[in-house]
Amino acid sequence: MSEHAVRFLPDDVAVAVTGGESLLVAAAKAGIPVRGSCGGKGACGKCRMRVREGRVAAAGYGKLTGEEISAGWVLSCQSVPESDVVAEVPPESRLSAHRVEQADGVVADSDPCREEICEPLLRRVEVACPPPTLDDARDDAARLLAAVRQVTGTDAVDLEPAALRDLPAVLRAHDWRVGALLAEGNCRSTVAAVDGPGEGPLYGLAVDIGTTTVVVHLVELTGRTTVGTRGSYNQQAVYGDDVISRIIHATETPSGRDDLQKAVLATINDLTVQLLRQAGLQPADVRVAVCAGNTTMTHLFLGIDPAYIRLEPYTPAVNDPPPVRAGDLGLDIHPGAWVHCLPGIASYVGGDITAGVLFTGMARQNPLTLFVDIGTNGEMVLGNSEWLVACSCSAGPAFEGSGVKFGMRAMEGAIERVTVSPGGGLVEVATVGNTAPVGICGSGLIDLLGALRRAGVIDRSGQFAAEPDTPRVREGEEGREFVLVWGHAAGRGTDITVSEAEIKNLIRAKGAVFAGIRTMLKMVGLPVEAIERIIIAGGFGRYINIKEAIAIGLLPDLPIEKYSYVGNSSVKGARQVLLSRRARDEVRQVAGRMTYLELSVGNDFFDEFVSALFLPHTDMTLFPSVQD
Amino acid sequence: MSEHAVRFLPDDVAVAVTGGESLLVAAAKAGIPVRGSCGGKGACGKCRMRVREGRVAAAGYGKLTGEEISAGWVLSCQSVPESDVVAEVPPESRLSAHRVEQADGVVADSDPCREEICEPLLRRVEVACPPPTLDDARDDAARLLAAVRQVTGTDAVDLEPAALRDLPAVLRAHDWRVGALLAEGNCRSTVAAVDGPGEGPLYGLAVDIGTTTVVVHLVELTGRTTVGTRGSYNQQAVYGDDVISRIIHATETPSGRDDLQKAVLATINDLTVQLLRQAGLQPADVRVAVCAGNTTMTHLFLGIDPAYIRLEPYTPAVNDPPPVRAGDLGLDIHPGAWVHCLPGIASYVGGDITAGVLFTGMARQNPLTLFVDIGTNGEMVLGNSEWLVACSCSAGPAFEGSGVKFGMRAMEGAIERVTVSPGGGLVEVATVGNTAPVGICGSGLIDLLGALRRAGVIDRSGQFAAEPDTPRVREGEEGREFVLVWGHAAGRGTDITVSEAEIKNLIRAKGAVFAGIRTMLKMVGLPVEAIERIIIAGGFGRYINIKEAIAIGLLPDLPIEKYSYVGNSSVKGARQVLLSRRARDEVRQVAGRMTYLELSVGNDFFDEFVSALFLPHTDMTLFPSVQD
Prior knowledge:
Two copies of one chain form a homodimer.
Chain A: E1 3-9, E2 13-18, H1 23-29, E3 48-53, E4 56-58, H2 66-70, E5 73-75, E6 79-81, E7 85-88, E8 122-128, H3 140-152, E9 157-159, H4 161-164, H5 167-173, E10 177-184, E11 189-195, E12 203-209, E13 213-220, E14 225-233, H6 243-252, H7 256-279, E15 286-293, H8 295-302, E16 324-325, H9 326-329, E17 338-341, H10 351-360, E18 369-374, E19 378-383, E20 388-393, H11 396-399, E21 414-420, E22 427-431, E23 439-440, H12 442-454, E24 473-476, E25 479-485, E26 496-499, H13 500-524, E27 533-537, H14 546-551, E28 563-567, H15 569-579, H16 581-593, E29 595-596, H17 604-611
Parallel strand pairs in A: 1-7, 9-11, 12-15, 15-17, 18-27, 20-29, 21-23, 27-28
Antiparallel strand pairs in A: 1-2, 3-5, 3-7, 4-6, 8-10, 10-11, 12-13, 13-14, 16-17, 18-19, 19-20, 21-22, 24-25, 25-26
Helix pairs in contact in A: 6-7, 10-15, 10-16, 13-17, 15-16
């Protein structure tokens, strides 16, 4: 097989590719993360590169204009080098730093240990053992365990083999008064290490493994302080934007499952290294981790076959995986550390959602609460201390910029606010970082839908007016489109547009969320007005304009004061589990109590979905506050 | 530091040594196992080598004759190369193949599964799971575990993370009818792997980790067949013959504990490789191991600090260590296999003894039984289904050839039978392999004591007659000695002798065993005659002449038909534990029920010991069958 060198600009990094490997694969090898929203199928057009030197066998030109093609632009996923190649990777094709919701939120970050004795997943128990005599000949391990069992009040404690090795010397060096590091394992606790009394702090990680972004909190367990937080995009993104593309890569590429596990581990390890460096700590100082992710993310993190998550009847390999050792997994913390993944309940309602329900407290409170997490997927939970119903719809990627040609994440240059003058002649946009616009992110898309509707550019079904008043509506390469920003004002030099097909796609996404909420309400026989509060979670929720989300019919038309924003409740729930026994018990109860509503069963959801394919809805009585 | 090359003959293997390393250490590096009975202290004289070329700085010449010194003989442990050296290692200085008791014994090898359902530590459970539907959305793991729990009747079953990875594909490939490999772990069972229905046999190891010898049985668990057995010397022997020398090496040499763990693992791994090769199997085919060893051996095998085993009040780090993963330990079988060590009860009554008690059945039967295991140590257990007492005395090494200049193990050329004519003029010996005698082994030493006494060469206290009738009694370099074989008839060309000091040493060893037995009887208030049967265990017991052992007062004077020989009950007990749940429950009960009698506490043992320093005893009424 022939081998060619590929050099990427402006990074000036070169790698060798062998027969058949695309520029996208080469970029991944070179450590340059390129967007692969559609999973390398040539469908999304987000992985564009410009070939500066050399020849490539390229396909997928339909996504490019004639001008672009002449200028050397290619879809990197569809382009295979035929000689040594120099390729330029533009900023908009890169997965790079974008706003990552690490912890903020207006719901108070409740301390899980406020009310009761705090028992972190790893804690130090100070014990004093009676020294052995000829009359009391018990072994060292028995002495220590008896003392630990007495202090903790439980018999379900064992000694880890690793803690046994130097136990005799440690006990005697400290005159039989020692600190035992007690780690909760699967069914029993184990003494993971023994050292002198009162020595040093204890560290753990709380991790949110999102499809799009990963957030790591480094927590000191005894003082319950967050030492640092870091977030970044999930390096799996080069294999596709959504869970379905990732599952396809994992199951249809020979090394696919391994690729994805390595990518997410590299993401977490990179963030952890940064946190440790900042805190002056070593990997071995971190002795426990709790991860919350959707069911697919949890499978891929653990290297478990996710194939059947996407095939009817949508069966995960496991909802509540057993803890694994960091060393067995490849997580760069203490190799003996237990890594716990929070339990999910179904293929599309995972540990990130049980973590969120835990964190909001809705499962132990009376008010009827709707929890909505619009991330890459859209998951909703309805209920209170008496019952809980959950469902999921694949609404998310559209609002994260997937399936929209100029869609992008909330990074510099992303349009996040849009106003449109009546008739559509004038458009004002605000971008992240106040720089020249290069694309549009989720909150911008919500604004755009509402604004186009109010301006009369589109009708309630998302169709462009038959005779538009403005040259911004024109015939594009894929049907009619609206020019949001003219090329001369755009950061990339070409017009930023949104097509009718894309608008319809967004309406389907918002309709799915609302229809899911309505189907849950119908299941329990309650009207929309019965909802006493709505909690919005997830990074995306941070930036949306609730009034606009109601105006397009994405969220129920309830008084704005019933809405609150909880931030990244997945990592916050994971942090509670790390710190509190009560939280561990509760998250398990939540997973056990929650009824999963499979929307594809029966006609209820489909009927609701069809009714929701209007702006805001076919039944306007559901949106009394929305002016026609 | 200067570096010299050392070449060993006749092996023709060369290694480099750096400043201060002895020829003994060099031989270990070269993979040549040399006897180091005293642990490299220059005290035993067993590690002799002959320097053929080069210079060594040597000490310890007191153990060598003038002739030997002129001929180039040195104690390798005391000789440090000062130039490149060529050294010859004679056969008698080598640890090499000697008779290893792998399984024989006259007590029937009872099948532990005869009476009840056999549940090996690893077994296959055939299950059929209902396929998932949209109405039964449980995950694959929950389906499998529910089926396994139903079949086994226990909820304490988890899935190993490794078994989860490919579970979805396995379940569907076999149409939801699969075999789950169920491994008993610490507190719960785990499904270690899942494959098609009824596939393949399952293998485990039963291992006896003796101070002197190591025996491995490869067992097919489902059919309960022993596929093969292998035994060899414990490669730790280069660091000393007895547990005390090993503990000293482990605690006083920086890499000592690691050296000893590596040596025993290498021993077991070598034997296992041979067994696997013979059976056409791979290491990963073996998925469980049960090891029985004395407390020191168990500590060293697991890499646990043994320091306090030899220091009053003789406290082990652990009597009942938790199972460990083969991969974590360095045992070359399936890395995920659990390695179980049988529980001991004290520093000098370990898992080899609970294994023996288990195997004999004495703990569930009525007859009062004395179990005697004379290996490198001497351990005794007295009792029945109602009570059990155990004690230990360090009698062993003397009978394994340690502390006797011409002592050796039962290998080719070892004298194993001795008769002496009245007065001592004529001596007849029989050797292992019927070759020219080079030394004397344990059974030979027992014969020798009795024969010398009956011939009138020594008196009842072990003293040579004041005016001996034979030139065989002479003044040697270390006091008076008896020439057992003249040099012209001996395999090594020099006279084979036994000194008065060595005879006294043997009498102390036999006295300690008998005094231990008497002290146990005294504790429970019973006379010697109350013992209904005596079971002799251990490789050494195989070859001793019971009548001679009674005659010298090593064993109680009871009718010969009350004696039986059980063989290597340690490995046989380990095999039962591998195969049967009943055995696992019983060995744990035995460890819990057995009362350990510390002989060094109080005066009872000391008084008995002093009384036993005669042949057979000061109280001849205890030995009515022994003619004066």
